[in-house]
Sequence to fold (197 residues):
Amino acid sequence: MKFELPPLPYGKDALEPHMGRETLEFHYEKHHRGYLEKLRKEIENKPEAQKSLVEIIRTSEGSVFNNASQVWNHTFFWRSMEPKGGGDPTGEAARRIRDSFGSFERFREAFVSTGKSRFGSGYVWLVLNGDRIRCIETLNADNPLGTGGTPLLTCDVWEHAYYLDHRNDRGRYLDTFLRHLVNWDAVSERLAGGGEL
Ligand code: FE
Fold:
């Protein structure tokens, strides 16, 4: 497959002031693009070059896995946010969060504390497991594809995601993500079985 960097779903200053233009410039143009370029080099003229990104993630390890997974994770992360997003969930997302966590407040506490508990770099996810949705965290490039359920939402908790806007305060970053950035319509769409990458 020919792997291209998917365009950001919004302008680089569209998430201001919650996620600044400089963060998106570096995170998208340097980090995300960097993972894609490394992946391309590593799989050039190899059997992996014929596979889809998700197939590569499911069947590789080491550096090929890390770069492929980081490409997928970042695309999923951009689509987990929108300008003027966040706040109380809507639609199917609201119903499922109430069913699984009791209230939005309890979900918020679980998501923030799960993200804060990831020591070092990784991601916090909302995933669908059977009938339930839950918060999990993954290390470095890992993601829940194949093992941890269906990803519904993710927040990148590598320091490069928040240091320019929130310095070392990961808790404030996660809180800002939920209050101002989450794309709840995308979560509802994924719960309905759509929104695949
Ligand atoms: Fe990142």
The pocket of fe (iii) ion is lined by residues 27, 31, 74, 156, 158, 160-161 (CB under 6 Å). Helices lie at 21-43, 53-59, 62-78, 91-101, 104-117, 163-166, 170-181, 184-191.
